[in-house]
Design goal:
CATH architecture: Alpha-Beta Barrel
Low-confidence stretches: 1-7
Number of strands: 8
Helix content: 25-40%
Oligomer: single chain
Structural class: alpha/beta
CATH superfamily: Glycoside hydrolase/deacetylase
Strand content: 5-15%
Number of helices: 11
Mean pLDDT: 94
Order of helices and strands: EHEHEHHEHEHEHEHHHHE
CATH topology: TIM Barrel
Shape: globular
CATH class: Alpha Beta
Distance between the termini: 16 Å
Largest sheet: 8 strands, parallel
Radius of gyration: 18 Å
Length: 297
């Protein structure tokens, strides 16, 4: 799905997910932006440190901030126990939380126990909160790529049109680190779901990059893998998903299913490594942001 008309060039968006999740992750994202090649971040409106992230945004005007739609993980802004919420209140005993990870959410989704009207209400609250706080939202993606699931894609596309969000992460051309077979079966599923979601998004006038990368190395990105990816980057536009941060014992303890061996510090080290910036330059890659993509509608 080439959209730039500039296929002789390589243009890269480096995005950090989970801004607002915890103070440790907020600090790592800011460091990756000020010292490294990170240009964009996706903000959770229902994280433990969302308020802190909102206070940081005006201090770093060159950091592009989109929304990380909280389908799983994070507080339930609606505040009610429903099909989206977990029995475990992992962010404190008085706050209702969303399902803690994709496996339990997917099981409920496949058995028809996720109410899409409840999901639309929750995501609408998140989008409205962000618009009220920061104004225009340049792009969106979903926690753990669950926005790609049939039915959920339609909800997300409808809400992005409502809130005038022009771009959405879509991975039909998900790239892998050369020589890496990690998560290959999951990556195939991601691509297949991505193709369907891309058709829906394109019909609604949402823009995206030609390629996507970072799924197969999520939580384990290091300098060597990053440089391999940059060297093999195809012509066109590509988004690289990253998760920089400082170590977060709270998440390891309370959300161990997803974060027990997650390497935030390693991803941060890769993004600020001078070798990464040097590889970008040597490969003739231009760092851009979602606002630089053409608006389709």
């Amino acid at each position: 799905m080439h959209q730039t008309g500039m296929l002789t060039q390589r243009q890269l968006i480096v995005t950090a997910d989970d801004f607002g999740l915890t103070p440790e992750i907020n600090a790592g994202i800011i460091e990756a932006h000020t010292r490294g090649i990170l240009g964009s971040t996706a903000l959770l409106m229902n994280g433990m440190a969302t308020d802190e992230a909102l206070r940081l945004i005006p201090k770093y005007p060159k950091l592009e901030v989109g929304i990380h739609l909280g389908i799983v993980e994070g507080l339930a802004l609606g505040g009610q126990v429903n099909s989206l919420t977990d029995t475990l209140r992992y962010f404190g005993p008085e706050r209702v939380c969303l399902h803690r990870a994709w496996p339990r959410f997917l099981l409920r989704y496949l058995s028809g126990r996720i109410d899409l009207e409840e999901l639309e209400f929750e995501l609408d609250l998140q989008l409205q909160r962000m618009r009220d706080a920061v104004g225009k939202i340049p792009f969106a993606n979903g926690t753990q790529h669950l926005h790609l699931l049939p039915g959920i894609t339609e909800v997300v596309v409808r809400l992005l049109r409502k809130h005038q969000v022009p771009s959405l992460r879509l991975p039909p051309r998900s790239q892998t680190i050369p020589g890496s077979w990690r998560r290959r079966h999951y990556n195939l599923a991601l691509r297949l779901l991505g193709y369907r979601a891309a058709r829906k998004a394109r019909a609604a006038g949402l823009s995206t990059t030609d390629y996507f990368a970072g799924f197969d190395i999520c939580g384990r990105l290091d300098t060597a893998a990053l440089c391999k990816l940059l060297e093999s980057m195809p012509k066109g536009t590509m988004e690289l998903m990253t998760h920089p941060g400082h170590d977060c014992p709270y998440l390891r303890q309370h959300l161990g299913e997803g974060y027990r061996d997650f390497g935030w510090a390693g991803e941060l080290a890769a993004l600020v490594d001078p070798k990464a910036a040097q590889a970008v330059k040597q490969q003739g890659i231009t760092l851009i942001q979602f606002k630089d993509l053409p608006i389709l509608a």
